[in-house]
Sequence to fold (396 residues):
Amino acid sequence: MRRLAVASVLVLPLGLLVAAPTSGSSAAAPVAEHRATSAPAPEVRRAPGLDVRRVAGGLDIPWDVQPVGDGRLLVTERDRARLLLIDADGGQRAVDFPSGSVWRSDETGLMSLAVDPGFAANRRIYTCQGARRSGGRHDIRVVAWRLDADLRRAARFRTLVKGLPTRNGRHGGCRLLILRSGALVIGTGDAAVGRNPRNLRSLGGKTLRVDRTTGRAWPSNPYARSASRRKRLVLTYGHRNVQGLAQRSDGSVWSIEHGSFRDDEVNLLVKGGDYGWHPVPGYNESVPMTDQRLPGRQRGARWRSGRPTIATSGGTFVRGRAWGSLRGTLAVAALAGQRLVFLKFDRRGRFRSARAPQALRRYGRLRSVTSAPNGDLLVTTANGEGRDQVLRVSPR
Fold:
């Protein structure tokens, strides 16, 4: 176990990380079911030093990490399709989980993980994973599981959503987030099929919002009364490959999205919003990530990477006074960029600044970022070949 104490924080040049003010980036109310009732405390201007500690090693593409109480963590490994329990002392063991039922190809396997807010009583978790269908076909599904009392075995509770599109596993998404309202939001990829993102009867290239017990559409979804079951699930559309979801203290919901050769995006989600990805005819990735030439209104990104992409992935909003000037920022993992970026937005959701600590630019590709109960950040690496880790990042 290694601890690194690093005080310096690098402010990134705006040529690499740029705001994206567009004609569609403001106005309509964002998705926000619970709003803060008091103003946040005045910001401390000093950026903290960071301690980075390895929690677990020897992993292979750990896609997600979530705390489950008493210092324990659950981790999903994408390609091995394993569900692991990490003890408070760093010991790890595989949970009895039906890995053989997970379809694995390219970017798809056992991916995102969410833990029920009532986990202490119901021991329920949720996964997003590739699945085999009859006739040699595949799809991506969101499945609810119940763990036994010793957290040794996972039993299927219910398949909540199925039919998320996939062909060879490219652009499989897939991020899960439970909102304070109790709704489950699902970020999906477009499966590299050009017409999926704007087709409201396809679940690809969307964010979906469902009841986490039944899998039914959330009652306030924009198309909740549609005759199409799939359309009823849609919260937003026009996305390329949603890799991250986060809810801010004001209740607003944000997505983090892979760009093509340019413009990774952070988007503030607006119910029924079109985020402008429409790579047709064929799968034409030369079009803008947010194409304002399309019919209707497209919602502009609140931040974009510019060119080239850094392959942004998971993210979470940072909380706790100890984080100083990084408090309230959106911490975003980058795969190709091999860094953790702290993006600051003002109360209206306008981008203000970006920082990338040197302490987190030495672990290779970073996949997921989760907030621990005490405000620390849990970060997974994505280097493959059994070289991956779960890191705990603490302010000091």
Q: What stands out?
A: The chain has one domain: 3-395. The CA atoms of residues 329 and 344 lie 5 Å apart. DSSP finds two helices and 27 strands in the chain. The first strand starts at residue 3 and ends at 6.
